[in-house]
Amino acid sequence: MVKITDRQAQAIKPGGKAIPAGVTGLTLQPGKTAGSGKWTLRFVSPVTGKRRDMGLGAYPDTGVAEAIASALAARQQIASGVDPIEAKKELSEIPTFEAASRKRWDEVKKGFRNEKHITQWIGTLEQHVFPHIGTVKVDKLDPRRFADVLRPIWLTIPETARRVKQRCADVMAWAWAHGYVTSNPLDVTDRLLAAQPTPTNHQPAMPWAQVGSFVRASLMVEPLLGARAALLFVILTAARSGEVRAATWEEIDLDAKLWTVPAGRMKANMMHRVPLSDAAVDLLQRQGERKAGQLVFPSMRGKELSDMALTVLLRKAQAVSDVPGRVATAHGFRSSFRDWAADNGYGKDIAERALAHVIGNKTQRAYERTDLFDARRTMMQNWSNFVFSDQSNVVPINQKTGTNGSRSYLD
Length: 411
Description:
The chain has 18 helices and seven strands. By secondary structure, the chain is of the alpha+beta class. The chain has three domains: 6-92, 2-Layer Sandwich (Double Stranded RNA Binding Domain); 97-192, DNA polymerase, domain 1 (Orthogonal Bundle), CATH 1.10.150.130; 208-387, hpI Integrase, Chain A (Orthogonal Bundle), CATH 1.10.443.10. The strands form two sheets. The chain has a four-stranded antiparallel β-sheet, covered by helices on one side. The protein is elongated and about 100 Å long. Residues 201-380 form the Tyr recombinase domain. It holds the Pfam family Arm-DNA-bind_3.
């Protein structure tokens, strides 16, 4: 079929015949004035089997080459079993960023293990993103718009900023996969933030050499219960604060000096055994009634402590961290322990297992049947000894001795 030429298109007149344009079903229909017309593609829908006419724009606004290219693309869709009119209709209904985010959220939340992660995912976008670009359609968003959203939190709350950026990138990747955008603007957003220092991705952590003095100055205060006790237990066990705050007495075996955290409460969804040092056992023995199902470190109202309770404690103590201008976090003490372990000769495997991190790939884990528990027990006792070392300025009330002969300084 011979393609229409620009001269033929320019010569079209009102009331004249439609001009075949060189693609099956494509014609230039005459308009109301000389030299004007409308491009129409006639085809049989592969979905319904009915004849349909698809407009491809007005001439001369839509030129010959553009009309032919659009018609060829539509013909490819038809050959693939897609009705190009319906496909175009779907693309014309481009969602706003908020609408796209909520659709993506409906998909990803099925993979989360608890309600907290579900609400956090959408909550960070509701707080930091939707007020600025929530009503903007995704195809109108560019790297600059996302950089403007991220810049105010890039340094003040860097961990949150990183997560917000990841979630925005996930939403835009979803939009890309659905044909609403042709690229992901988050791929180059970092370039626009280049003038800003790179945010710290880790939780602010206290240098390990200062942990002992912090414990003595800020945690060894009567009564050693509630948030203070929970934070001290976090430090002694190198556990996540959420695992400690939700710990119940049936998980504790004081005789065996063992805390067994069930898989359902672990980030890796695997049961974790925690060896308890003498100081950790002493701390547990001070926590009052020990009934199955009861929280080990309840709040004053008997409920689970909030993460903010530990944060407030650290802020009041002005707990020093490795991030200038920010106090140490409860989670950061895991980094403190990890650095201590590395600087004191403990290998990566044993230290990572103490932190309940997943070691190696799936195949490697399938062949490993040990959690290095006995070696970890010695390491955690040495960590505890370090935390309570140099007690010359502390006068203990209770001079009882732990099972290994070391004196308890919790009283």
